[in-house]
Design goal:
KduI/IolB_isomerase, 3 helices, isomerase, Jelly Rolls, EC 5.3.1.17, about 270 residues, binds the ligand O=C(O)C(=O)C[C@H](O)C(=O)CO, metal-binding, 7-stranded antiparallel sheet, single chain, mainly beta
C-alpha cells in the first residue's frame, strides 16, 4: 500500500487545523505485520516506508502506479534502518544481517527483500542519477557526534550513516540520533535547509510516551504529537525539532539539491 503527499506552502501550515496538519505532515501506520507500506512525498520525491516481514519474506514493491517503473530502484537509491529485532535484507542475492538500528545503503538498480520474525525495517528512497555500491552501516561501527548537554536537556548522539562523506550517494543522506537518558530535546536550537527536504521517524518510545515535534517557519511554529514509529515530513521551509516525554531515538533522512550535510542555516532561539 502506498500513499501520496503533495507539496505545501508554509502559509498552508499556518492556517491548518490540527487534523489538517497531521494529514499533511504526519505519517502513521507505516509498520504493519506482513506488509510493506510507503508514503511518497512530492517534496524532493522522497519515499519512506516500513517493511515488517513476520514469518514470511517481503519484496521491496515497485509501486509502479506512483514510481512509473517496473522495479523500485530502477531510478532510485535506498536507505534501510532496522527499528525492530535482528533480521535480514537481501540485495541481489547477498544477505545482510541488520540488528536494531543497523543501517544499509542500497545503490540504484538492485532488487531487495526482507526477512526476520521480529524485524521492522524503515525505508527511505530518493531519485538517483548514478549507481553506488551497497554498504552495511553497523550502528556500533559508526563514531557518533556528541551534541547538546544535560543542563540544556538536549544531550544526544548523532550517528551519521550516510552524510555526503565516506559512503557515496546521489542525493540521499540518513542517520540515527539517540537522545541521552534524562534529556528530552532533539535538534535544538533548530535549523533550516532550504535546499533539502527531511523526514524524521521517531522510534524506541514507550507506548505511553509522545514526542512534541515542532514544525513551520521559525516565527510561526506549530506542533505535531507523535507516537513510536511515526514519521514527519519536514519541507525545506520548516524547522524540525522536538521534545519527548520519555527516552527516544529518531531516524533522519534527507534529499535535495546536494548531499552536503553542513548546507544548513541555524535558527536562533530569538527567531522562534
Ligand atoms: O539532533 C539533531 O540535532 C539531529 O539529529 C539533526 C539532524 O541530523 C538534522 O536535522 C539534519 O539536518
Amino acid at each position: 500500500m502506498i500513499h501520496v503527499r503533495y507539496s505545501s506552502s508554509p502559509s498552508t501550515a499556518e492556517t491548518a487545523t490540527t487534523a489538517e496538519l497531521r494529514e499533511a505532515y504526519l505519517i502513521e501506520e507505516l509498520f504493519v505485520p506482513g506488509e510493506v507500506r510507503g508514503t511518497y512525498t512530492h517534496d524532493e520525491r522522497l519515499l519512506v516506508g516500513g517493511a515488517v516481514p513476520g514469518t514470511g519474506q517481503l519484496d521491496l514493491p515497485a509501486w509502479t502506479e506512483v514510481l512509473g517503473v517496473g522495479s523500485h530502484l530502477e531510478r532510485r537509491e535506498l536507505g534501510v534502518v532496522n527499528v525492530g529485532a535482528a533480521g535480514h535484507v537481501v540485495v541481489d542475492g547477498e544477505k545482510f544481517e541488520l540488528d536494531h538500528l543497523d543501517g544499509l545503503y542500497v545503490g540504484r538498480g538492485s532488487e531487495v527483500s526482507f526477512t526476520g520474525a521480529d524485524a521492522a525495517f524503515y525505508l527511505v528512497s530518493a531519485p538517483a542519477h548514478a549507481t553506488y555500491p551497497t554498504r552495511f552501516l553497523g550502528h556500533g561501527e559508526v563514531e557518533p557526534v556528541a551534541l547538546g548537554s544535560a543542563d540544556a536537556a538536549n544531550e544526544r548522539h548523532l550517528f551519521r550513516y550516510v552524510w555526503g562523506q565516506e559512503v557515496e550517494t546521489s542525493v540521499l543522506q540518513f542517520g540515527v540520533t539517540v537522545i541521552a537518558r534524562g534529556s528530552v530535546w532533539n535538534t535544538f536550537p533548530p535549523h533550516l535547509h532550504e535546499r533539502r527536504t527531511e523526514v524524521y521517524c521517531y522510534v524506541d518510545l514507550d507506548e505511553q510516551d509522545r514526542v512534541f515535534h515542532l514544525m513551520g517557519r521559525p516565527g510561526e511554529t506549530r506542533h505535531l504529537v507523535v507516537r513510536d514509529r511515526e514519521a514527519v515530513i519536514s519541507p525545506p521551509w520548516s524547522i524540525h525539532s522536538g521534545a519527548g516525554t520519555g527516552s527516544y531515538a529518531f531516524i533522519w533522512a534527507m534529499a535535495g539539491e546536494n548531499n552536503t550535510y553542513t548546507d544548513l542555516s541555524p535558527v536562533a532561539v530569538e527567531e522562534l
